[in-house]
Amino acid sequence: MHQKPFALQFPGQGSQVVGMGAALYANSPAAAGVFDRADDVLGVPLSELCFAGPEDALNDTFNTQPALLTTSIAALRAFQEREGGDPAFVAGHSLGEFSALVAAGSLRFEDALYVVRERGRLMAEAGALSPGGMAAVIGLEADRVADACAQARAATGGTAGVANDNCPGQVVVSGDEETLQLAMAHLQDAGARRVIRLAVSIPAHSPLMADAADQFRRVLDAIPFSPPRVPVVTNATARPVDDPQALREVLGRQLISPVRWTESVAWMVAQGVERFVEVGPKDVLTGLLRRIDRSVEGQTVAQVLGVEV
């Protein structure tokens, strides 16, 4: 048993990297089984794409979403082989929420693969119909970011708003091209240290994803969900949701509403979580954790396993 109550956190898009999962596959039979199962279910060599690229194919959102889900669940199985014990909570950042639901036993891995591939397809289609983008805002708190976006919306009648509240001083905004550009100018004027346009053509977590969200809800309605064995803290509510139909609702809402990550982590800390393990490649969420609360321990699963993910 663990002395410290711990939570598992699962990363989202942007954490993918060519080579991810290869060492896991070589070192953990349980992890290897996850990659083999994904290849069988999807009917394509997803494992090869993770291990060897090419990078442009891995970064295609249609592939990125199942690739990250698979690598995260493979890392989870390796972690469970090594450590055992149930976390107090699980949470995932955007796409990572689906990995968290698999970890909690609410969603079968095979169903999650199908769901995230459809999510990627629908998001790409919605982005083509309602083009826009996203920008990271460094050094400005979320309420001031929201104010700058509101000014831009008032001027254009378009869409711009907070997409991800990642940690204090790091917020991502999303919107249509004209309104986003104006919001970025307002954010500079408001004193942001940096405003960085992100290399994405999809205005995720914004009302521009409404068509995708409507279609995605129909995808979710066709998939069986079980009550989670471990509480899942969701992006849309920053609190646990345990009813299967309510989970479908918040997963659909996630595409058009902000990722409330700062609140989610702070809430878990308030419930007594003392250790967070990031289950996936890279260390994005572990970095955010240091900005949210330095009093708790943050580790990547690679550090726990002693194996690159």
Under the CATH scheme, the architecture of the largest domain is: 3-Layer(aba) Sandwich
CATH superfamily of the largest domain: Malonyl-Coenzyme A Acyl Carrier Protein, domain 2
- CATH class type of the largest domain: Alpha Beta
Q: What is the CATH fold-level name of the largest domain?
A: Malonyl-Coenzyme A Acyl Carrier Protein, domain 2
Biggest β-sheet description? 5 strands, parallel
What is the number of E strands? 9
Strand arrangement, major sheet: 7-2-1-8-9
Structural class: alpha/beta
Please state roughly what percent of the residues sit in beta strands, choosing from under 5%, 5-15%, 15-25%, 25-35%, 35-45% or over 45%. 5-15%
Roughly how many Å apart are the termini?
24 Å
Q: Number of helix segments? A: 14
Runs in which pLDDT lies below 50 for 5 or more consecutive residues are none
Task: List the secondary-structure elements in sequence, H or E.
Answer: EHHHHHEHHEHEEHEHEHHEHEH
Provide the residue-averaged pLDDT. Answer: 96
Overall spatial form: globular
Helix content: 40-55%
The tally of domains stands at 2
Radius of gyration: 19 Å
